Amino acid sequence: MTQPTLIRRGHGSTSALPEPLRTALTLAATGVPVLPLRAGKTPFGNCRTCAGNACGGRPNMKSAGPCRCPGVCHAWAAATTDPAVLTSPAWTAAWRRAVCVAYHPGAAGLTVVDLDDAAAVDWAHAALPATRTVPTTRGEHWIYRGAMSSHNGIRPGVDIKSTMAYARYLGPGTGTMAALPNDVRALSVKEPSTVRPAPHAIPLSAGAGNGECPHRTPVFLERGIAMAEQRITAARSAIHATVYRTFLAVLSTHGRCGCLTDTHVARLFTAAQAKGETLRHCTDAWNNARSTLGL
Length: 295
What we know:
By secondary structure, this protein is an alpha+beta fold.
């Protein structure tokens, strides 16, 4: 499947429409889901029917959920490529009030590394592979092909915007878009205060030996962690139960052999938090799974 391309503003034959909508339709035609941003560069708020998530909301990028609100009502989850929706009366009214266009990077198969200042840009040049760059007011967006979970504040002045997030469209940028590298994925587990479980929550001492699983190979462990991440990410309902069962499965296989590390557990917590779980819920689920298994 051809990756979407962030292309130039206003390209096409829609001059009678509001400028933000013209840009949005052009982007949507290339497979990039878009939404309008109002003054303050924030999404439009919920309507009265959807206030307080009474409608059930829109839980993930793959499904619109039970809500069928005709308005621009659910931030990143409202982003769409459907021109009929984008030009509907409710959306057109929002476009006329919009100050700019945003898009949902993860749904377009993209990841944006948002560099908020010159120091962050300097860091990226030293630490990350070159890719498409887009100037922002104070820094740059570095755009990669490939999606991952979104994270704020992974280091000073650096956010990751991909799934369940939106990024402003600020133009096509320059440079060749590179594939999402492991260097960027690894950033999501380098801030222990946001993704690691409570102190001493990880069983590393039971038969740890040389740190490798004595009855499986390291490749088996890596595959198991990746499958666990995928299982959590793919969940569309019963997120709490899915996270708990996944933690239980991982611990039942590797909880006694000592091969799990902080990095492995952080990856599981990151996947769970990307689905809306809090750090407390993740820690409780992890500790409950350990207790069930007698660890």
